[in-house]
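Quick log. Single chain, no ligands specified.
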Amino acid sequence: MIADIFVRIGYAAISLFILTNYGLLLIGSMARISAKVQGRVGQPVWQPYIDIIKSIAKRNSIGHGVMFYLGPVFRLAGGIGTYMFIPAVFGSVLFRNFSDSGDLLLVMYFIFFGQLGMALGASEGGHPYSALGVSRGLAQMTAFEVPFALSVIAVVIQYGTLDITAIVAAQQGGFLNWTLFTNPLAVLAAMIAFLGMSGHNPFSVVLAPQEIPIGPPTEYHSNLLGMLQTNRAVFNGAKLVLYMNLFFGGATNIVIMVIKTFLIYFINIFVGQAFPRFRTDQSIRFFLGVPTVVGIISVIIAVL
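-> predicted structure:
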């Protein structure tokens, strides 16, 4: 029994290592694609690795309290916890993680945990705009979680379970069994929420590019910034795998997983290059408008 537990932990560690590297390469690739769209050369695909190494190599000489240090820890724990209870590849022993020990509700709690932990850490920082950044982030998070939660409720009602593995199993047998085709409105609401969850344009109200410097790189540096950069890869990868499982039939091998998650993430880049950034109030009104109505209709469809 104890040996089996250590084997599961080892498999989960390997799975997390692969996801982290995939997430870093995905971030570098999308940045490169965005640069090409804008007519720039862009950074190399491996630039996220360089950034993390440079951050970890520096020493931290500034602190603002215990929560300032725990913020990145909570953020990374949220990303890892989210992924650990999601089956990355359906039917795989290596990539099943601990999906049989937690359900969709637990995964959603971990998503919130990382975001709220980061807000607590930033609120104890010394930057004068930290409170502004926290208020922006929490306000938008509350807004986009409404259509996302409605789409998840629709999926749970449709398949009659909170078990992510069971939801993936119900979508096997052909692409017409995917939630994308059985309840497209739930997928539409979830994908719009995913744009805000990922923080790309037009919903990049937290980092606010070309505006005031309020993002984590302003307050955090050295190994703390390195943890945030690592979590960015882990959290992005975990969310992509979650969306793939809930709405796009999951994956039966790692090649399909890479293709599906790449295409899901590419939607962010496509929309971000086509639309300018919303103001915070515009973003909140948007998420509580049409996407929320679409999510409500998707729940009604699932009930009927």
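The chain has 13 helices and no strands.
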